[in-house]
# Entry
Amino acid sequence: MKFSVIPNLLFLWLLNCKFTKCSKRPIIGILVQEFTPHDEFIDDKNETAGFVSASYVKAVECSGAKVVPIFIRQNHSYYERIMNSINGIVLPGGNASVTPGFPYYDASATIFKIAQQMNDKGISFPIFGVCLGFQAMLNIHNNNTDLLMQCDSIHETNNLEFVPDHTTTHLFSRFDREALLNLELLSITLNNHVFCIFPHNFTTSNLAKEWRMTSLSTTGKGLKFIASAEHVKYPFIGVQFHPEIAPFNEEFEILHDREAVRVNRYFYDALVEMSTNNDNKFQNEEEERKHLIYNYNPIYRRAKPDQYYAQKYIFYN
# Structure
């Protein structure tokens, strides 16, 4: 008899929800980031302007969750209040600095501290870092020490080289065999980053005891870098590539075929599944509605050569 993975996973999840706290319709927060000086969307008259690429919002919604933007330049109590009202967070990619003193990084550091405290109290709260978010996450946990080295993997599609026992990880245990095989054999992960974290920097840093490399990729110039990693204790996962791009963004040269889209969907499906493991929620429906991304409209402008996101949500305080 053929074993059906999804129905059995659904049964186990429903059984788990019967005896533990969980969310049936999770809400994912996506961290806003500041504009870089050359961005065509920037409003010089408003220093608090920030944005979220619409592809992250669409990716989360396609996996069955609602979205709340999380703003930078806020005090600690704001992040505590928001995180106790949502079920997980995406730290998105972009061009912000991943060093202390910059809004995106400082907000990420506060989020990580609160998430650690929540998990230590028994509230399972996942964080998914993508590209810049992945880099920020590791720098934060390396005592704010920068691990990044230049590698120039710009507009490259790569395959993944999995580490042993990758099917036991938080992330890849949620993928079917065909998806894992295609990630290993096909170049279907989009990389667009100047900096990387190399394996030797990772293993000789403070991270080696707390984090686990789960896959590697190689740049067009032959430099091997960490493509994904996760915390050994907390549900914190990071990927150096952009799984949200394959289904949605026409500005990159990447495979948009059915299998590339299907496989890249697993990453956000995994995040949303992990976010169902807590029952955080807003105080009432009115409070929830006030925070949802539905209150904002994305703006489209055909991307220039140095503009990577054609559609953005723009925020002003």
Summary: The radius of gyration is 19 Å. The first strand starts at residue 27 and ends at 31. The chain has a mean pLDDT of 87.
